[in-house]
Amino acid sequence: MIEWIEILEILAVVMASMAVVLAFAVLVNFARHALRQGKPEVVKVVVKKQEAIKEKPKMSKEAREGVTFNDIFMFMIAVPLVLLWVGFAGFVIHTGLNNSAVLENIEAYTTLIAILGGPALLIIKDALDVWKQEQAEKTAFYKTKAQAVIDFNDAAQKQAQMIEANDQEQEHKMESKK
Fold it and tell me: What is the pTM of this model?
């Protein structure tokens, strides 16, 4: 059975590994930014690759960015943290139901869950806020689209009525000339 000290050590190693990966990602992002700013003296190693890159068609800033620092942060830190939090809480619950030794050390387990849970809950809250914003944008789009369809149908109906009225008027004029 894995004790909570061993779990903390494993957690520390995983978080340290993720920090190294994040530091590397920041360094790569810094190098790309330096090259875009025209400062090849900052990153001389990549100069040959920059010369080999062919000119691409101009795109919008959003389309050019691709993977951003926030994307890297979410996938390297936020997602594993939330999964670790949920997984560890499930592990404690499962083990606590089957092993009374876990219940003796429950304070240590709940402390670890609380430490992981603080940032994880903030991340989940932010993700839900982004989702709510996307849903609000979709709702606004569909309201605008529905109003455009209603306006189009109204205009088409008015035009059809006007054409019919003009046809009847023309027909009446033709009958009155006879």
Answer: 0.46
